Amino acid sequence: MNITPSSSDCLDVADLLVDYAEHSLPPEQTARMAAHVANCPRCQERVAQLQELGANLKQPSP
């Protein structure tokens, strides 16, 4: 059964999205975030955007 998280669930994890996208959370928080993101298309998109931004920032400037 796939349960879509509520907006309040997203607000609860919003402050952790950047750290989650950068793989810099402790294991317990990573597990909590992974469970949320697995069932939340909105947060999946945000994590993908943050990871893309991080990758772009790591590339040398032309």
TrEMBL record:
Residues 10-44 form the Putative zinc-finger domain. Pfam families: zf-HC2 (PF13490). This is Zf-HC2 domain-containing protein.
